[in-house]
Amino acid sequence: MKVTSANSNVSASQLSYAYKLTTGESLAVLQDISLTVERGSFTSIVGPSGCGKTTLLLCISGLLAPTKGSVALDGLSPTIAREQHKIGYVFQKPVFFEWLSILENTLLPAKVAGVANGVDRARLLLDRFGLGGFAERYPHELSGGMLSRAALARALVHDPEYVFLDEAFNHLDEALREQINEMLQEIWLDRKMTVFAITHSISEAVFLADQVLVMSQKPSFVQLHRNIPFERPRPRSLLRDQRYLELVDEIRDALKATHTNET
After folding, report:
1. CB burial of residue 57 (10 Å; 0-12, 13-18, 19+)
2. Strand, helix or coil at 184?
3. For residues 99 and 19, what is the distance between their CA atoms, to the nearest angstrom?
4. CA 219 centroid distance within chain
5. 22-46 pLDDT, tens per residue?
6. Distance (Å, whole) CA 106 – CA 127
7. Phi, psi (5° rounding) for residue 55?
């Protein structure tokens, strides 16, 4: 399926990926994915477990070379975009240097990118995500949820143009997750970076995104692309809106269909 826009800056053409198994055989994970995403948009990705969502993010961000096809970020290869410090990434399991404080860990991308006000920006983001009082603490002193928030601050500290979130809020309880979603929306509205976010929460996907992509079972393709029409900023009251609930149900039904079609 193809998602098109005249003012796009992220595109994938016939993107495929297959892992080499120890037996010498190949396991096809992504199959001929072509999509184009508009500059400054927020894309949520949902799909069955193990379908290749993370592999798709890794290929688009340049951390993994596709077996076939190509990816361009505003005309640049993902590798060049990374070298130019245009990319921020939050992994499922964030990794921190245990000998560095949370502030020092958060600051690293800004130091590498040569951001002049990196310390101020790191402190501002940590404070915004409720970690201002923990900046001088070390990773082993924080909970999993706190580390997830610190990882998000680290991904944003160098003001990237493209942000990739791989289940970034997995360790947060529901109330804090909703609060962080609102904060992320505020930052996105301010900076308008292009965001791709994997989530298992359909409610979260619809609340945050301009479009939701539903992935099929592997070898995976985009089974459904659904534009989300709600104006921004989106208040928490949207979660009770009938139109919102109907969209959540539609995407949930599409996700259920991927399991029904599994062979």
Report:
1. buried
2. helix
3. 34
4. 21
5. 888 889 999 999 999 998 999 999 9
6. 12
7. -60, -40
